[in-house]
Design goal:
The protein has 440 residues and is an alpha+beta fold. The protein folds into 4 domains: 1-132, 2-Layer Sandwich (Beta Polymerase, domain 2), CATH 3.30.460.10; 138-223, Hydrophobic Seed Protein (Orthogonal Bundle); 227-380, Hypothetical protein af1432 (Orthogonal Bundle), CATH 1.10.3210; 393-438, no CATH class. Helix content is 50%, strand content 10%. It has a 7-stranded mixed β-sheet with strand order 3-4-5-2-1-8-9. Strands 6-7 form a two-stranded antiparallel sheet. A hairpin with a 7-residue loop joins strand 3 and strand 4. The termini are far apart.
């Protein structure tokens, strides 16, 4: 453990308080991973913690629940008083806590045995619930009765699935049974809390592991019924040997851990079951699934209170994932950059490469990689793909044109000209073009 974290424990000890490293950092350390998210449990109450560390940067937003956050020698950590939690209302976090004297009482309230470990130099590893053994056996097990843990806070359903997927562990049988039987309790959890936990799944190294568990346990049906319709779905096309859901999982795993990109990867074909048509040869087609899919995804993300910026980006990626052809001129690529946005277009091509890779194993993706490199070159052009034209309607009115349809026609003409030749995107040059074409 970092010496700075041990110093925190020693400072609390010198003031007469017990203190232990707990939580995810300890779990990761025991697994041989670099710990980064440090939590300390102590017998000191929040006011006492504040006084002891008053010379450091503190955040007291969690003080009501016994937590003081501190910035100490480059490390951010939370110091929380030994506590038990009050009454859980509607399967959510409690609104109040009670402080206790015992570390064991504090650890009893935790969700899973692998998160209910504690350590300090004097006592060594403290393991009341066989969490070390579960780590070694790669098992996610509830502390105590799994049904009670889930009824206390149903978000633990998603947390169990996340840990199982991100750590490549198995969920203990009774806990898994409780997840399946109590999955509808997730409807009592705020959309924001679900989204935060789901984002961690999407940004994990191999999201498909958790997503498969969500599908198998029918948790996916509760949270994302539109996605659940893709499970086991036969696409009836020679280009896809995987079921639709397996294809989506493959694409998610094969794009970079960028939230908007992985959301787009997960939802890009969500509308296929709604747009299937079969031709006379028995081959399936999904005309319009890109546009309908972007609408479905927008509704889902809005329901889970994602930001407007996130929704906009994901929509753009889904809408454009079918607007790529093997032969595209620079003009067409410039249009695409303008349509998708310079900040998104390279991610679009990462999505396209993964999408094609996850169909037939021998499908060529090289032309997409070449195209992506060409787009990088086009992005170096001086043309701004955000504002784009270096003149506007006011400039045309100043030139003597009347407000109305003609202004739009001229701007559209100039846009096409600049997409063909970006060097024309100079105000004086554009005005000369207008004078020559519309005033001659």
């Amino acid at each position: 453990m970092p010496i700075e974290i041990m110093e925190i424990l020693n400072i609390l000890n010198k003031e007469g308080f017990a203190a232990y490293i707990v939580g995810g950092a300890l779990r990761d350390y025991l697994m041989g991973k670099e710990p980064y998210d440090f939590d300390v449990a102590t017998s000191a109450e929040p006011d006492e913690v504040e006084e002891i560390f008053k010379d450091y940067i503190l955040n007291t937003v969690g003080k009501k629940f016994g937590t003081i956050s501190i910035r100490y020698k480059g490390y951010d950590l939370e110091i929380t008083t030994f506590r038990t939690e009050g009454h859980y209302e509607k399967n959510r976090k409690p609104k109040e806590v009670s402080y206790v004297e015992s570390l064991e009482e504090d650890l009893k309230r935790r969700d899973f045995t692998i998160n209910a470990l504690a350590y300090n130099e004097k006592s060594g590893l403290i393991d009341f619930f066989s969490g070390r053994e579960d780590l070694e056996n790669k098992i996610v097990r509830a502390v105590g009765n799994p049904k009670e843990r889930i009824e206390e806070d149903a978000l633990r359903i998603i947390r169990a699935i996340r840990f199982a997927g991100s750590l490549n562990f198995k969920i203990e049988r009774e806990l898994y049974r409780s997840i399946v039987e109590n999955r509808l309790l997730l409807k009592n959890i705020s959309k924001e809390r679900i989204a935060m936990e789901f984002n961690k799944i999407l940004l994990s190294e191999i999201p498909s592991r958790s997503l498969k568990i969500m599908a198998d346990s029918k948790v996916l049906d509760v949270l994302f019924p539109d996605l659940a319709k893709t499970v086991g779905y036969n696409q009836k096309t020679p280009y896809h040997i995987k079921t639709l859901f397996d294809h989506l999982l493959c694409v998610v795993d094969n794009v970079a851990p960028i939230l908007t990109l992985r959301l787009a990867a997960l939802f890009h074909d969500v509308a296929k079951p709604l747009t299937l048509s079969i031709d006379e040869e028995g081959i399936g087609h999904f005309y319009g699934h890109d546009l309908l899919g972007s609408e479905i995804c927008e509704n889902v993300l809005r329901d889970y209170n994602y930001s407007k910026a996130t929704i906009k980006t994901v929509k753009l990626l889904i809408e454009d994932h079918m607007k790529v052809h093997e032969n595209m001129t620079d003009k067409a690529l410039r249009k695409q950059i303008r349509r998708v946005g310079r900040d998104n277009v390279l991610n679009l091509y990462d999505l396209l490469i993964a999408d094609r890779f996850c169909t037939l194993e021998d499908r060529d993706v090289e032309f997409l990689k070449v195209r992506k490199n060409r787009i990088k070159e086009l992005l170096e052009e001086k043309t701004s793909y955000d504002r784009f034209l270096n003149i506007n309607g006011k400039d045309l009115i100043d030139l003597g044109f009347q407000e109305g349809k003609i202004i739009g026609e001229i701007l559209n003409y100039l846009t096409e000209a600049v997409l063909e030749n970006p060097s024309l995107n100079n105000k004086d040059t554009l005005l000369e073009i207008v004078k020559e074409k519309y005033r001659s």
